[in-house]
Design goal:
single chain, alpha+beta, 2,3-Dihydroxybiphenyl 1,2-Dioxygenase, domain 1, four-stranded mixed β-sheet, 6 strands, 24% helix
Amino acid sequence: MTTPNPVRQLRLVVHAEDYEAALTFYRDVLGMPEQAAFQGDGGAQVTILDAGRATLELANPQQVAMIDQVEAEGRPSARLRVALEVTDAEGTTRRLTDAGAELVAAPRETPWRSLNSRLDAPAGLQLTVFQELGPA
């Protein structure tokens, strides 16, 4: 018998200096549905966006170096990088760069059969956008 997972949700909390720009980028351009929004005293604002299923990927330095080589021609990734699975990596990458994200590496097929791109996005996040391509 397996023990139920005591963790119910992974929530990445991002300090966004330009809150409106980040909200527009992630909610409106990327298309993450708004789950909840709250306002508080002194102009405090937070919006919780639905990112689908969450996982925590832990990688040792050698794995990070290998991913950096495959995904971004060896350019080192940020210590924390958010990877988002999408249905159309090329189209999503175009929309995000048109909305102000900086392209680090264009979409490319990886040895593990996904199409990955890397971007520097609003609120100081580095993103990997990936599309699963299925079995070889």
